[in-house]
Amino acid sequence: MAEIIEITDLCAKELEPYSCTNEVQLKRYFEPEPGIFIAESPKVVRRALEAGYEPISLLCEEKYINGQAQDIISACGGIKVYTAASSVLTALTGFKLTQGLLCAMRRKKLAGAESILKGCTRIAVLENVMNQTNIGAIFRNAAALGIDAVLLTKASSDPLYRRSVRVSMGTVFQIPWTFLDQPVPDYIGFLKAQGFATAAMALCKDTVSISSPIISSQQKLALILGTEGDGLDQKTISSCDLTVKIPMYHGVDSLNVATAGAIAFWELTKNKDTPSG
User: Fold this and answer.
1) Which contacts (CB < 8 Å, 24+ apart) does range 114-118 have?
2) Which residues pair with 132 in a beta bridge?
3) Is 79 helix (H, G, I), strand (E, B) or coil?
4) Number of C-alpha atoms within 13 angstroms, CB side, residue 210?
5) What's the pLDDT at 80?
6) What backbone phi and psi angles, to 5 degrees, belong to 198?
7) I want to staple 128 with a disulfide (CB 3.0 to 4.6 A). Which of 31, 154, 155, 183 is the partner?
8) Coil, strand, or helix at residue 181?
9) Can you state the angle between helices 257-269 and 132-144, rounded to 10 degrees?
C-alpha cells in the first residue's frame, strides 16, 4: 500500500528529482547505472508503467489522490506519494503540473542499435535534433504512423527528458529507440551494413519526391531527418543513397521537422497493415 506524505519542506532531499531543473543531472542520478526521468500526467505514467519502467515515487496534487491518480497509486504498490495543494507543487517544480501528477522513474539500460534494428523495415533517424518539443512530436508521429524504430545521433536531445515525454504522450515508451554509437556521418555506413537504404530529407538538385516509387520499393529504408534550421550535415547527404523532399507550394521550401516527419512517415507506411480494432 502506498505511503501518502504531505509536503512540509520544499528542500527535502527526497523531493530533489521534482525540483531539479537539470535533466542531465537526473540522467546521471545513479551513475554508473541509468538515472531518473520524470513522467508527467496520468496517461504518460500509465504508459510508462505498462512498458515496464520502475517508479521511484509520485508527486500528486491532493485532489487527485482518490481521483484520476488512484489506479496509478494502486499499481505502484508501496511507493511514496508526496502530495500538497497545486500552488505548493508549482512552487516546488517551477511549473503547473499537467493533470496534477508527476512520477520519478528509473531509466532502463538502452539496447544497442544493431539489436533494435532486427526485423525493422522502416526507421527514422534523427541527426542532431535538439528541440525537446520536436523530439516528442516526432516520436508520437512515428508511433502512430507505423515507423518501426527511432535512432538518434549523440548530439540529439534525450527522448526521456520531461518535455519530450509529455509531448510524445508517452509513445516514447511504445516504440524502440536508442542512440547511435557512430558519429556524423559515419553512422550512415553502419545503417547500410544493416541492409538499409538511406534517404536524407534535403533539398538538392537530384532530390526525389517522398512519394516516388524509388522510395516505396526499398525493402528496408532509413529516413534521415536533420536538426532545426541547419538541416542535415552535407557529408551525411553525400553519404546517403537518396535525397528526398516533400513537394510544396507557394514558394514554401521547408516545414518544421516534426511536421515533415509525419508526412514522410505516412508515405513510407501507408501500405502497411494496421492493427485491427
Assistant:
1) 114/194, 116/149, 116/151, 116/176, 116/177, 116/178, 117/149, 117/194, 117/196
2) none
3) coil
4) 23
5) 97
6) -115, 130
7) 155
8) coil
9) 10
pLDDT at 252: 87
pLDDT < 70: residue spans in the chain: 273-277
pLDDT per position as a tens digit, 127-139 = 999 999 999 999 9
CA angle 92, 94, 100 (to 5 degrees): 70
Nearest-angstrom CA–CA distance, 223 and 232: 12
CA distance 245 to 261: 11
Query: Which residues are within 8 A (CB) of 44 and not within 5 positions of it... i.e. 6 or more apart?
Result: 165, 166, 169, 170
Query: Which residue from 23, 213, 246 is spatially nearest to 132, judged by alpha carbons?
Result: 23
**Residue 180 near residue 149 (C-beta atoms within 8 A):** no
Q: What are phi and psi of 183, to 5 degrees?
A: -75, 170
Task: Give the pLDDT score at 203.
Answer: 80
Following CA atoms 162, 145, 113, 135 in sequence, which dihedral angle do they give, to the nearest 10 degrees? Answer: -30
pLDDT at 29: 94
Dihedral, CA atoms, 198, 180, 127, 211, nearest 10 degrees? 30
As a whole number of angstroms, the distance between CA 105 and CA 207 comes to 43
pLDDT of residue 275: 61
Q: Please state the pTM of the whole predicted model.
A: 0.93
135 contacts 156 by C-beta, under 8 angstroms: yes
User: Are 108 and 255 contacting, i.e. CB atoms less than 8 angstroms apart?
Assistant: no
Distance from C-alpha of 25 to C-alpha of 18, rounded to nearest angstrom: 12
Burial 174-186 (b: 16+ CB within 10 A, else e): bbbbbbbeeebbe
Give the burial class of 21: count Cβ atoms within 10 A of its Cβ; 0-12 exposed, 13-18 middle, 19 or more buried.
exposed
